[in-house]
Amino acid sequence: MLLSRGVNRRIGRAMHDYSMLTDGDRVLVAVSGGIDSFVLAWLLVEWRKKAPIHYDLAAVHVDMEADANGPGPMAQKLRRSISALGLPLHILPARWQPDLLPTETTKTYHDLCFQCARSRRTQMFVYARECGYHTIALGHHRDDIIETFLLNLTCAGNISTMVPKQNLFSGRLTLIRPLAYLDKVEIEEVGRQLRVTPIRSLCPLREQTKRRDMQHLASLIYQQIPGAKEHIFAALGNIRQQYLLNQSKERHLP
Ligand SMILES: Nc1ncnc2c1ncn2[C@@H]1O[C@H](COP(=O)(O)OP(=O)(O)OP(=O)(O)O)[C@@H](O)[C@H]1O
């Protein structure tokens, strides 16, 4: 399958702008069962065929359905589709599962969503370290980056977002997001051409998170203001420090 010229160029530009991959890297691509991370896994396989560098590649999945009998049905299905790409899939039974939740009324959906994602990430970080992988590739895209910015702006009182490349633990682990310059719809189009069927999410909180609210907010802004998406994304790399405030956060947050 051929990627459109624009899509191919923006993947290349993201990889290049952030020097995401170098020769000899050992890369784990994190696959959720969703379209974005499957397309990313496919892309990293294809990219390696034509890249002037070589990197080792394997996939990892944190299985929310795993039980004493082993991987759940979704993870097994995912293993089949990932192995069709020629990649091994490491399945990690999730340590944190929604039905293991304490019945705490103080926790909001957002807290729980955050905890679940953090636990998943920690499991992948530990696995990467134990198995000698220094890079984890995630399927976040431009819409995710803008929604995170809106979330941090409106709910956390800071101006920040998820970055296309992030060094952690003094550089011992790097997160990369090669789809950072693509829109969700573009990735879905690639997924359609690859005939990817998303494996349904088990997340019971999915429809009720602040992230979902940010998706609605973003789509309202885009409907009202043509070009807003491009401008917001550009703004994230165009900080005018001298036109920001120097008050302390504590003084103004409730
Ligand atoms: N259970 C999981 N196991 C491994 N990686 C995961 C898992 N869930 C999410 N990820 C990684 O984190 C990224 C962002 O997760 P998020 O939940 O926002 O994505 P998604 O919409 O569920 O799935 P996708 O982005 O693959 O379509 C995914 O693209 C994937 O790289």
Automatic annotation (TrEMBL):
Stored SUPFAM superfamilies: Adenine nucleotide alpha hydrolases-like (SSF52402)
Molecular function per GO: ATP binding; transferase activity
Positions contributing to ATP binding: 30-32, 36, 62, 139, 144
Start and end residues of each tRNA(Ile)-lysidine/2-thiocytidine synthase N-terminal domain: 27-196
Coiled coil region boundaries: none
InterPro entries: Rossmann-like_a/b/a_fold (IPR014729), TilS/TtcA_N (IPR011063), tRNA_thiolation_TtcA_Ctu1 (IPR035107)
Domain of life the protein comes from: Bacteria
A Pfam family assignment: ATP_bind_3
Key words, A-Z: ATP-binding, Nucleotide-binding, Transferase
Any Gene Ontology biological process: tRNA processing
Protein name stated in the entry: PP-loop domain-containing protein
Organism this protein belongs to: Desulfobulbus oligotrophicus
